[in-house]
Amino acid sequence: MAFTITKAVIPAAGLGTRFLPATKAMPKEMLPVVDKPAIQYVVEEAVDAGLTDVLMITGRNKNALENHFDHVGELEATLERKGDTERLEKVNFSSELADMHYVRQGNPLGLGHAVLRAKMHVGNEPFAVLLGDDIIDARDVLLTRMIEVQGQREASVVALLEVDPSQTHLYGIATVEQTDEDDVVRITGMVEKPPPGEAPSNLAIIGRYVLTPDVFRILERTKPGKGGEIQLTDALQTMAEAPDVTGGVFGVVFRGRRYDTGDRADYIKAIVQLAVDREDLGQELRPWLKSFVATLD
């Protein structure tokens, strides 16, 4: 039976060590991308796809996440008193985006463990998982398409991106079979960060999933894998191997714009790419960028 998917799970318990010392006292998810924290782009994407119930899996020192999506009476009153309606609308927008919930991960035992912490909240229905390091451009459709495919196939769906073969060791990589749809493949196998030259394809699993509740049962008996962590990839591999029981796993091949904020250099690139396309910033930034790049030679 097809469900109307309304729940999104966003794991946000990581320590952000690649961004120290900036993340010593601030969650990495709150690092600004232009003028919004990275996590807000992810929540907005979920809401735009019709997911109004958002559960964040958090950890210690993550209170700023809850504060950001809550009302701040003193700030709102000050902006209203000043007649600064533009900024007041922006502040209120993040506070009213979705029905937000939070649960602590506890022991940092990997992405699979973080997803498993959502079991009580999600219940027995399909749900989406969005990783905060990946920002999908709002002008490109991904999550909506994944939800559509999940309803049609009644299976779990992951997002795939074609990457350069030299980069496959940085991702979970899928082995696939073609289907009758150009952007949909059946996944027959997955491997987490294969050694260079040993990847089964160049289709990388990126941070969007639409999962059936079967994943919880499988995660509960998935043993720690690479890095001593419970890997979501391992659970999905099990599901892909038992399509008669779980419905299998399909992939939606994404050919749009994705920004990686999990790496320092890629984070800076994401800010530049998003800023130059903004109406309020691009006109000033583009000519400056061209002249700056010319000086690099």
UniProtKB/TrEMBL annotation:
<comment type="similarity">
    <text>Belongs to the UDPGP type 2 family.</text>
</comment>
<keyword id="KW-0548">Nucleotidyltransferase</keyword>
<dbReference type="GO" id="GO:0006011">
    <property type="term" value="P:UDP-alpha-D-glucose metabolic process"/>
</dbReference>
<dbReference type="InterPro" id="IPR005771">
    <property type="entry name" value="GalU_uridylyltTrfase_bac/arc"/>
</dbReference>
<dbReference type="GO" id="GO:0003983">
    <property type="term" value="F:UTP:glucose-1-phosphate uridylyltransferase activity"/>
</dbReference>
<protein>
    <recommendedName>
        <fullName>UTP--glucose-1-phosphate uridylyltransferase</fullName>
        <ecNumber>2.7.7.9</ecNumber>
    </recommendedName>
</protein>
<keyword id="KW-0808">Transferase</keyword>
<feature type="domain" description="Nucleotidyl transferase">
    <location>
        <begin position="7"/>
        <end position="273"/>
    </location>
</feature>
<dbReference type="InterPro" id="IPR005835">
    <property type="entry name" value="NTP_transferase_dom"/>
</dbReference>
<dbReference type="InterPro" id="IPR029044">
    <property type="entry name" value="Nucleotide-diphossugar_trans"/>
</dbReference>
<dbReference type="Pfam" id="PF00483">
    <property type="entry name" value="NTP_transferase"/>
</dbReference>
